[in-house]
TrEMBL record:
Belongs to the aspartate/ornithine carbamoyltransferase superfamily. SOTCase family. Keywords: Amino-acid biosynthesis, Arginine biosynthesis, Transferase. Residues 2-160 form the Aspartate/ornithine carbamoyltransferase carbamoyl-P binding domain. It comes from Lacihabitans lacunae. HAMAP family: SOTCase. InterPro entries: ArgF'-like, Asp/Orn_carbamoyltranf_P-bd, Asp/Orn_carbamoylTrfase, Asp/Orn_carbamoylTrfase_sf, Asp_carbamoyltransf_Asp/Orn-bd. The lineage of its organism: Bacteria, Pseudomonadati, Bacteroidota, Cytophagia, Cytophagales. It catalyses: N(2)-succinyl-L-ornithine + carbamoyl phosphate = N(2)-succinyl-L-citrulline + phosphate + H(+). Its EC number is 2.1.3.11. This is N-succinylornithine carbamoyltransferase. Coiled coil: none annotated. The gene is argF'. GO terms for molecular function: N-acetylornithine carbamoyltransferase activity. Homotrimer. Pathway: Amino-acid biosynthesis; L-arginine biosynthesis. N(2)-succinyl-L-ornithine binds at residues 142, 176, 236, 276.
Length: 315
């Protein structure tokens, strides 16, 4: 595997899930692979889980790790070509990516959607320019439209916990007061579609995700209908794709409550975190034995470690 940016970069989702679980069972089994190799972690946005789990995974593989907050620690970067750089951005991505590729054997990049221009976000300008100009493998730590390290961890968690061969998995929207990216939801949907799970998406009118990611997945605008008999409830807020970047509703009726979880088949509550308690989900749900969000977050190490192992093997 050369890069881990999107699903086109890998051959088999089930194989990567299997490798992630094997690394969880034997974390230092490939410690030789990363010896004298350096990974550079570049954050254009905040992070807790991704920042720490990626460092831990790289250390488990014997790598050296460098972390930089782009813009705060470095120069503001210009991504447009052919412009006269006479404003605030002092460095072009062409030079910045190529120079970082001189220092690091692998680069891992977080750059959220700006939620202003749908075409620009969905062209994945930032990650694709790093892929083009860095000259080294790139790992996606959440880009404008995807979060593959999260999605692989999500599938590892479902495989660990499922009690039936083909669980019913629900991706449900929950309210938030500011616009959030579609990336986590897009990514979860496209990874689940690589499994044989029963999959349903529940969101209010106007919040349907891009067909490019959800294909012909059943979308319902009634949360209770979706929850009936579900084995896993994956909760996430996202802003409207159709009315790009807009918050069309903050309806608290979409909050996850014990009464809704009671509609499920002893369903497990999942969320990528961070989650705003009380706003998106009741404390009783998050604090219940059916919440698996901590195990899910723990699996982020094994997720990115599996991706990084495959990248190191291909160097
Ligand atoms: C892992 C989630 C990152 C980000 N969350 C926030 C709060 O910006 C999002 O919604 O994409
Ligand atoms: N789930 C996730 O990616 O968390 P962070 O934004 O804290 O890295």
């Amino acid at each position: 595997m050369k890069h881990f940016i999107n699903l086109n970069d890998l051959e088999s989702v089930p194989e990567l899930v299997k490798q992630g679980r094997a690394l969880k069972a034997d974390p230092f089994s490939f410690q030789h692979l990363g010896k004298n190799k350096t990974i550079g972690l570049l954050f254009f946005n905040s992070s807790l889980r991704t920042r720490i789990s990626t460092q831990k995974a790289a250390l488990n593989l014997g790598m050296n790790v460098i972390v930089m907050n782009v813009g705060a620690d470095s120069w503001q970067l210009e991504f447009e070509d052919g412009v006269i750089m006479d404003q605030g951005k002092a460095e072009h991505i062409k030079e910045a990516a190529a120079v970082l590729g001189q220092y690091c054997d692998v680069l891992a990049v977080r750059a959220f959607a700006e939620l202003k221009d749908r075409d620009a976000d969905y062209e994945e300008t930032v990650l694709e320019k790093f892929r083009k100009y860095a000259g080294v493998p790139i790992i996606n730590l959440e880009s404008a439209t995807r979060h593959p390290c999260q999605s692989l961890a999500d599938l590892i968690t479902i495989e660990e916990l499922k009690v039936v061969e083909r669980p019913k998995v629900v991706l449900t929207w929950a309210p938030h007061f500011k616009p959030l990216p579609q990336a986590v939801a897009n990514s979860f949907a496209e990874w689940v579609l690589k499994t044989d799970y029963e999959f349903v998406i529940a969101n209010p009118e106007g919040y349907d995700l891009s067909p490019e990611y959800i294909k012909n997945t059943k979308v319902v605008h009634n949360q209770e209908e979706a929850f009936a008999g579900a084995d896993f409830i994956y909760t996430k807020n996202w802003s409207s794709f159709e009315h790009y970047g807009q918050v069309l509703t903050q309806d608290p009726a979409w909050r996850i409550t014990p009464e809704k979880m009671a509609l499920t088949n002893n369903g497990k509550f999942m969320h990528c975190l961070p989650v705003r308690r009380g706003l998106k989900v009741a404390d009783e749900v998050l604090d219940s034995p059916d919440s698996v969000v901590i195990q899910q977050a723990g699996n982020r190490v094994w997720s990115v470690q599996a991706a990084l192992k495959n990248i190191l093997e291909a160097l």
